[in-house]
């Protein structure tokens, strides 16, 4: 399940990178301001989605699943 | 003090940090990092149109380039506006009464572009990008944007350039 969530996150960030790349290529001047505006709105929406989905990702405390190996852990 | 505690060296007792725990990155931490990266991208995406909206447009006015007798049909001449040597411009004579002025920097990696009258293209020799000399649009190659074009005004055999020509969506590569 977590792998699916991480994949969705990476997909969303890739989409944002694609939008930013398009904005840089198309709208470095005053022309095509409409394109860059819609791209900015989409990018912010994606960011808000990623922030919202954070609550569905469980926080596994550090080393919790490593307890059985702690006995032999001599690496400091 | 128990026997076990005696076995622990002093340095270990002072720094009881386990390497495994210190180097452990949970999935939530990783996703938080991705979210931070996402926020940075969103900020950059908002900053570009905001910066462009408030940026003042460069006004050239009327700049004298030369005489119509200076250039033959199919010829090309490089010039600078207000001695700004960072941005070269090229004046092209496509036909007897057809003049065009473009920025002479390729929109890919800023190489100097050249007009090829035989092929009727503006060519970037670095990575073989080709532009249309009619409107500066990209015909072929890696350039992502058309060449910026200036308006040409002819007054009694004198050539002047004025402001940038607004690009249309169709001319966009």
What labels describe this entry?
heterodimer, A: 76 residues, mainly alpha, B: 173 residues, alpha+beta, 4-stranded antiparallel sheet, 10 strands, disordered C terminus
Overall description:
The complex is a heterodimer of chains A (76) and B (173). Chain A is mainly α and 76 residues long. Chain A has helices at 2-26, 33-53, 67-70. In chain A, helix 1 (2-26) runs antiparallel to helix 2 (33-53). Chain B is an alpha+beta fold and 173 residues long. Helix content of chain B is 25%, strand content 29%. Chain B is built from four helices and ten strands, in the order ααααββββββββββ. In chain B, strand 9 (149-155) and strand 10 (158-164) form a beta hairpin. The relative contact order of chain B is 0.12. Chain A binds chain B through residues 2, 5-6, 9-10, 12-13, 16-17, 19-20, 23-33, 36-37, 39-40, 43-44, 46-47, 50-51, 54, 57-63, 66, 69-70, 73, 75-76, and chain B through 12, 15, 17-21, 24, 26-28, 30-32, 34-35, 37-39, 41-42, 44-46, 48-49, 52-53, 55, 57, 144-145, 166-167, 169, 172.
Helix/strand/pairing class of chain B, anyone? alpha+beta
Roughly how many Å is the radius of gyration of chain A?
20 Å
Shape of chain B: elongated
Largest interface: A-B, 46 and 36 residues
Beta fraction of chain B:
25-35%
Q: What is the subunit arrangement here?
A: heterodimer
> What is the overall number of helices of chain A?
3
Spatial extent as radius of gyration of chain B: 29 Å
Profile the largest sheet of chain B: 6 strands, antiparallel
Strand order of the largest sheet of chain B: 1-10-9-4-3-2
Head-to-tail CA distance between termini of chain A: 33 Å
